[in-house]
Amino acid sequence: xxxxxxxxxxxxxxxxxxxxxxxxxxxxxxxxxxxxxxxxxxxxxxxxxxxxxxxxxxxxxxxxxxxxxxxxxxxxxxxxxxxxxxxxxxxxxxxxxxxxxxxxxxxxxxxxxxxxxxxxxxxxxxxxxxxxxxxxxxxxxxxxxxxxxxxxxxxxxxxxxxxxxxxxxxxxxxxxxxxxxxxxxxxxxxxxxxxxxxxxxxxxxxxxxxxxxxxxxxxxxxxxxxxxxxxxxxxxxxxxxxxxxxxxxxxxxxxxxxxxxxxxxxxxxxxxxxxxxxxxxxxxxxxxxxxxxxxxxxxxxxxxxxxxxxxxxxxxxxxxxxxxxxxxxxxxxxxxxxxxxxxxxxxxxxxxxxx
Length: 355
Description:
five-stranded parallel beta sheet; 37% helix; Rossmann fold; globular; alpha/beta; 2 domains
């Protein structure tokens, strides 16, 4: 099958293009992301929609896009979308399969408009029932988040991210500290912010990566894991401590669009607070239940991550962990992991091919 993609992200679709090619399919992609420089490219120029006006996405914009591109895109068998999932509105009138690979909370740009968010949920339900939209998430968190609000099943298929072509080779004797939270951990660590522009192999040349994430699922985690780089992440208890103190300074600071855009805690869809609302970021116990679904705590798909209970514990563990052994175990597991991911995509694409 031949698919078309329009995206504001670069990494998710790069991974999917490789996966689809491995399975005998193809994706032609256009990106309006400002991060295309990472792949040595410039953003594509698209009529009707751009990196600014998509934040005002509505039915008129979707209709204008369809009328502009209905002839050019008619040759495709279907469409693949990652960020934002709302771009599915642009392709509804083609009446062909739309795969949404959700890399982050799905509702943007409708996160702060109750009426538009409800309309989008109804749009998704309708087209899922019609076997037009096929939702997929690359994290358990976003699978459960999508199902919580849309009340429809969402497939879960992690990313592989072999496009970095990097492999663990610790010629740099420091550990890389990767976080939006500025903390000086000592001379054994190098802050990623000081790297500037870098090659992926530069990251794989560190002894390991200490990650204090800003989100529950980050593409760089898949990249690091596939490169067999030993990863160090705060334990759930320590992450909650850091979140309470630093949620405005980079620690899980982008779990919800409410945080990103400095909106009140709690989903705008609800008139009253709900104990299980994932956007109620001031409810720490509730947040704990949700962050347990984060990629870096998913032992089934990402084993061999080292967790630390404090920064003193981190300093102990970097000195007393067999890094080569961990990397070798990751490499062995990554072979199984890749095959499982390919099988999941193969099953979905076979379903579409046989429609």
